[in-house]
Write a structure and sequence with these properties.
By secondary structure, the chain is an alpha+beta fold. About 15% of the residues lie in helices and about 25% in strands. The termini are far apart.
Amino acid sequence: MERLRRLALPERTVRVQVDGEKCLGTPRCGKCLRNCPSSVFITFPKGREKGKVCEEWELVANDTLCWGCGVCLKVCPAGAITLHPL
């Protein structure tokens, strides 16, 4: 844990955008979620109904954590992620 505190993270340099039309979603893919070194991607259910398992999940990016390494671009099979320079 002490090593993480001394880690010098780069400044935020990009804005991350996820295209919901192209994204395959976390049950089927989730590669960006699993491979991002700074945990930029967050997933949550699109609709919730008591007593039922949610089948559709929304994927969004918390780009305040992103430093623009581009791993998500390389692992996304649908090309649903774009990085915009700030």
